[in-house]
């Protein structure tokens, strides 16, 4: 039985969130701090337009669904709206249009300037509004604010209907504060406190207003502080300036922890700077380690796959993130069988959610394990982290979790015992397709028919192959020689069997998957590019696969499509069947470079660079439409893509690593550049504060025809720089 409920399709007892309507304004402005985030329009408002995605959110619940400011009962004119480079501060410049009363002009356009400055800090929202009179006469100003709170769960905002909800409580207010509250079905008391300073002239349950006169060149300031709390939590009453100071200090400290990347191309620097700032924005202290939340607004929570791939992308610039991801996922690794959560011993988390619907079991995602790739990616990140840092003590701490993950791959992950890792949903409400392309329609046969399970995905076998190959080295270091030898044998057998079972000679690609009868799904997809990333692809076939991925059917000139044009379910506007995903392209480029196809990897770098130059704030979104690049036009945006999004932000660092051929060996210690290459857009790249073990270097990579030279500017410690041509 299938029924449509808003943006959610419910099939029997399972559900699938679809993109059924556009976001109300594609150019929104985002702030995030800790477990809170806020989305505004460019004016700095939160409008009551439909359900919308704007608001102030905390732990998966919207605590403020309306915040509208009027100047003399009119909406001001927008002059400028921008988020600071470090994502800490949203600044908006507004002015007045021509204003009339009884047909007479009483205030000319551009006479009043309204400056709004916003930030989030420690689960509180702060705003400073300053009104300045640039007219030659006294101006009368009426400034009003309307507020509201619907306490919607993030899944409600995406369109999921609920059979019942808790109760909105009667608003309470005094001379300077409005309190809005809600008691959920989970018996949690949700409260929003909106404080105004100075006291407004008028205040009610949902409105406040100020009236004042401004002499020429005179200014008036108003401050708002909004607190989101559960069970009457208390917060320190910081001033705007102190909150900004602390927020800024934390931002500077987090920035210093990253390797500094600076190139000869200023536009590329904007892309790198925005990506770095977005990553720092999304990285959250969980109490179990730092974790990059997947994306705003729909996935602002820990996702296993997303966190692992983001950490892999950023491992060379910020290895501490990988440690946090591994630590968090180890602490949340499944230890028991729980079919309702698709959990099995040793399996790594798919996602974790907070909020009323998760608490009530209306969605299965409070702690959900329905991803087939998180577990091998967990192993892969662990061994790459060890290569990068040599952190043996942490590996010893992690070792039982790595063995449990390996046991899952060998046992529960191999459902039919054929040596491939497969998935088949066990939870009635869980996700049907459990790879990174988790739309219900993403895996199919060449004639467009659905696939029955258990399903073995192309890219997952690559993750398992490299995880076993590299884990064998770690096992040897830790004295587990028998395990090391068996893992090498398993990896070699898997690589051979993978090529025999997945390679499609006539299509020059690997099948996207094998169905339950071991029939290959003869579909050209980007998944095959991941086989290059993990080096499971046969060396003799790699060149043909690269040609397929960069053919006009697969490559839009904005990037590699998730699905090649001409396939049965191809749709450039779909989520997974023809769209372009930056993280997917970064993995493919890394794979091409690994097989020596540096020029081809550079082509993907250039496509992503051109995309970043064409979108708001130089911020690559989660995905965009797969239409072919048309002269003079920007890429077509996907209407409900997360932006910022963690693995889209991390893409630039993996793309750079691919072209530079950058790898690390802690034993020597050594930084190695294998056939370094720079795209045409970059004449040089400067890397500063690049740490290996107890040493640190500053480097410049300069392009010279078809090669790149490495120049050491500064070096401390005994670090070897190796260039392999």
Describe the structure.
This protein is an alpha+beta fold and 725 residues long. It has two domains: 29-249, Glycoside hydrolase, family 65, N-terminal domain (Beta-galactosidase, Chain A, domain 5, Distorted Sandwich); 257-671, Alpha/alpha barrel (Glycosyltransferase), CATH 1.50.10.10. It is 28% helix and 27% strand. The chain has 16 helices and 37 strands. The strands form eleven sheets. Strands 9, 10, 13, 14, 16, 17, 18, 19 and 22 form a nine-stranded antiparallel β-sheet that branches. It has a four-stranded antiparallel β-sheet with strand order 4-5-6-7, with no helix packed on it. The chain has a four-stranded antiparallel β-sheet with strand order 8-15-21-20, with no helix packed on it. A hairpin with a 4-residue loop joins strand 29 (503-504) and strand 30 (509-510). Helix 9 runs antiparallel to helix 10 (481-502), helix 11 (527-533) packs across helix 13 (582-594) and helix 13 (582-594) packs antiparallel against helix 14. The longest helix has 22 residues, at 481-502. The termini are far apart.
**Mean pLDDT reading:** 93
**Strand elements, count:** 37
Ends apart, CA distance between termini: 60 Å
What ranges have pLDDT less than 50 throughout 5 or more consecutive residues?
A: 1-25
Structural class: alpha+beta
CATH domain topology of the largest domain: Glycosyltransferase
Which CATH class of the largest domain applies here? Mainly Alpha
The main pleated sheet reads as: 9 strands, antiparallel
The tally of domains stands at 2
Integer-rounded radius of gyration: 27 Å
Number of helices: 16
Amount of beta strand: 25-35%
Q: What share of the residues lie within helices?
A: 25-40%
Estimate the global geometry from the Cα principal axes. globular
CATH architecture of the largest domain: Alpha/alpha barrel
